[in-house]
Amino acid sequence: MSTIIDDRLNDLKDSVIYHFKINHDKDKLLKESRVARYNAINEKNLDRYKRLGFIEKNDGVTYDVEDKEWFNTQKDWKISSKINDDPNSETERLHNVFKEVLEVDNLGPRFLTQKEGADVHYHIDGETLCAINFLVRGDQTPISFKDIGYFYYDVALINTNHSHSVPKQVDEDRVLFKLRIKQMTFKEAKERLIAKNF
Ligand SMILES: [Fe+2]
User: Fold this and answer.
1) Could you tell me if 11 and 159 are in contact, meaning their C-beta atoms sit under 8 angstroms apart?
2) Domains of the chain (ranges plus CATH)?
3) In the predicted model, what is the mean pLDDT of residues 155-166?
C-alpha cells in the first residue's frame, strides 16, 4: 500500500536519478580507463588549469563543493583529460549512441576515479546539468543525494545539479564513465531517454 510519504519520496527520487539499461562492454571500458590520464579534482588544480588554458571555457570542469577545506587539496577523486575519440572504442560508441538519443553535438566524455577508502564530499557539478554515468568498477558504494537518499546503480541519468556525494568507497577503486550534459536539464534528458525507449 502506497502512502503519501512514499509518493513524496518517489517523486524526490525521480527528480535526481533515472536508472536504465544499455548493453555495453564493461571490460573494454575498464581497459580504456586505464590508458586515460587523470588529474585530481581540487581547487588548486582547477585554478592552475584555467590559468594555463588546459580547461577550455564551458568544458564543464567546475564544481561547487560545500567543504572548501577538503576541496582545496584533495587527491583521491580524479577526472581524466579528454578521452581519445578512436571510433573503435567503447567510449566513442556510447558517446555516439547518446549524442543521437539526446540530439546534441557533444557530451564531453570523461572517466572519473575515486580511490578505495576515500569519500567525495557534497557538491554540485558546474556547467554539467546532468550526466549519464556508467559504473565501470566499484558499484558496492552508492551515490547520495542530499536530503533524498542513497542509490545504487549500474547505468543511470544523474541530476548533477542537486547536491550529491559518494560515501567512503569500499573494496576497490571506483571508476565511472561519464557523459556530461550541459544542453538540457535532468527532466528534459530523462524525457528524451524515455521517448527513445531507454
Ligand atoms: Fe558530481
Assistant:
1) no
2) 2-195 (2.60.120.10)
3) 97
